[in-house]
Design goal:
The protein is mostly beta strands. It has a single domain, classed as Sandwich (Jelly Rolls), CATH 2.60.120. 3% of the residues lie in helices and 52% in strands. It contains 1 helix and 12 strands; from the N terminus they run αββββββββββββ. The strands form 3 sheets. Strands 1, 2, 5, 8, 11 and 12 form a 6-stranded antiparallel beta sheet that branches. A 4-stranded antiparallel beta sheet has the order 3-10-6-7, with no helix packed on it. The longest helix has 5 residues, at 17-21. The radius of gyration is 19 Å and the shape is elongated. It starts with 16 loop residues before the first helix and ends with a strand.
Length: 157
């Protein structure tokens, strides 16, 4: 789809509904969590769920998922992966990020995934998921290390 940019606003002209609808609407759904999860396994699981929102067809949505402290299980070159998905752990993937440790030392790393999506009109739920390639991984969260998933309407597609 071609992007439908807004027009230049000129003094002493009428501002139209079409021009206003071409502006971004901002945050439409979000969630945050300070609860750690130390049971990330090789079965992909939902770790955070954004609030349900009503999508408008033919608009772009920017989805951001931040895990502040992610660590795979200890082991040479183990990985922890996070995804942005539609609805649940088997839904459409919109974004992907991973941390692969280089040594047998499972240190925490921040993983941020940003995706751009369009949806059909109607009720939408976006989730963040996590999976490790072996063993058990950790998502460490606290009041200073908050996991977030944010959905923003950024304008017409």
């Amino acid at each position: 789809m071609a992007i439908a940019p807004n027009t230049t606003f000129v003094a002493n002209t009428v501002l139209t509904a079409a021009q206003m609808n071409a502006l971004p609407f901002g945050i439409v759904a979000q969630a945050s969590s300070t609860t750690s999860n130390s049971s990330i396994t090789s079965t992909e699981a939902v770790t955070i769920t954004a609030s349900t929102f009503t999508a408008i067809a033919n608009r772009y949505y920017r989805i951001t998922y931040i895990e502040p402290q992610a660590a795979p299980s200890t082991g040479v070159q183990n990985t922890i992966s996070i995804r942005i998905r539609l609805t649940n752990a088997s839904g459409t993937v919109y974004g992907y990020g991973q941390y692969q440790q280089e040594t047998n030392n499972a240190t925490n790393m921040t993983i941020t995934v940003v995706a751009l999506a369009t949806f059909t009109a109607g009720s939408v739920v976006v989730v963040g998921t996590a999976v490790v390639n072996g063993g058990t991984g950790n998502l460490t969260r606290s009041s200073d290390a908050i996991a977030r998933i944010i959905v923003e309407d950024i304008g017409p597609a």
